[in-house]
Amino acid sequence: MQIEYVKGKIMEGRQSGFPRQYGPERSDHQPGIPLFPQEATRDLVVTFILVAMMFFLSAFVTPFLGPARGPQLSELIVPDWYLLFSWGLLKVADIFPQFTIGQGTPLKTEFSAAFWGDLLSGIPVIFLLILPFIDRGREARPAKAPVRSAFGLAFLIAWIFTSSLYSIREVVAQRWVSPNGAALIPDFTMKWFFIIPPVLVGLTSYIALRRLGYQPMRRWLVPYVAGLAAIVVAQSAWILFDPAGLGVEARPFTVEIAIALGIIAVPTVAVAAAVLLAPESTARKVSTWAGALGLIGFLAFYGGVAYLDQPRALGWVLSVLWPNMNTLVLIPMFAVLTAWLGTRRPYSTYEYLLNECYQCGKCHTVCPVTKVEDDALGGLNLVYNTFKKQHDGVPLWTCLACDACSAVCPLDIQYSDYILEERAKVHARMAADGGQRE
Fold this sequence. Notes:
Layout: H1 2-7, H2 35-60, H3 84-92, E1 99-101, E2 109-111, H4 113-134, H5 146-166, H6 169-175, H7 187-192, H8 196-212, H9 218-241, H10 243-246, H11 254-277, H12 280-307, H13 311-321, H14 325-343, H15 349-354, H16 362-366, H17 374-377, H18 382-387, H19 395-398, H20 404-408, H21 415-432
Antiparallel strand pairs: 1-2
Helix pairs in contact: 3-4, 3-5, 5-8, 8-14, 9-11, 9-14, 11-12, 11-13, 11-14, 12-14
């Protein structure tokens, strides 16, 4: 009878605010507070108050600057840490074409390195400003928005880090030198460091988030990991077999360099082969062991060279690895990490879905069992309580699987599927035990 009440929507007139439409296409959502003018006005008022406080402090509380900098301390002057990324973008802007439009007219515009640097510096800020307008969905979990989340990780974190490192390129060139006195990380490598790490972080994050959302990612893993492995193998072969790859001064240490390249390339190739040929469970184990053994092997090699007191050999090994750090250091790490994240065992389907519940109470309102069962009146929902193990085992069998809770769920979670799956598991255990329940 209660099921018929729910299907006939008889209970709608008895519950204030009860939805009269069902499913994801409902049009009777309760409106929230609009961005304009309410939220925009409030944010502007708060912003103006903060700016006024800054003006007041800067006018009446003059900070003590201290004595002048001694010229013997450092020749490099850099801004504070939170502006290092902008400083690095200003330095890398010279790779863009520089020209002038409207020469000799009032509309003269110079596309100089300073212009490109300012434009690059504004990209993270612009993204934060337009995010409320492009992100109009109701789902905020990273796994439900993998493109947006991966873009944020790549540009708002990785890109800012790489640009901050490039801002101190003079310190890197001065402190990190090879045995022949050359810069260990040339400026060309550091400029590519702007592009390769953010791209790797973005793609790896996308694959990991999609896998977290219980999506098969084999079609992404195979070309991505195999392509990274091919780059590492090609770069290692060029260094070892091309006369111009290793250099004359490093030739006496070919054996040590080959061992170091083998420790890097072998795990990468093994992971790519496992992703391409083996099942996901096997590929996950191979990626775990390959990453662990690769790290142990490199540390053992480093310790062995240091133990044999061959710092010159270790210096030439680093002089080969660090100029190619984008391909020989970062790519193997991301290949193994991506293979592990893309093949790891995610949450179970219903564990992932039921964890989305934010306890709005609509399922409890519409559930017919809560009207007749005293034990269910104090809980949120039969299915939710079963999932959280907050019950005595009865709700698993009192649920009618009528899907009334799924019909009103704002997140469109199919609760009855979980109940039916759990009952099937119990029946399977009973059959294995000879039909006897514990």
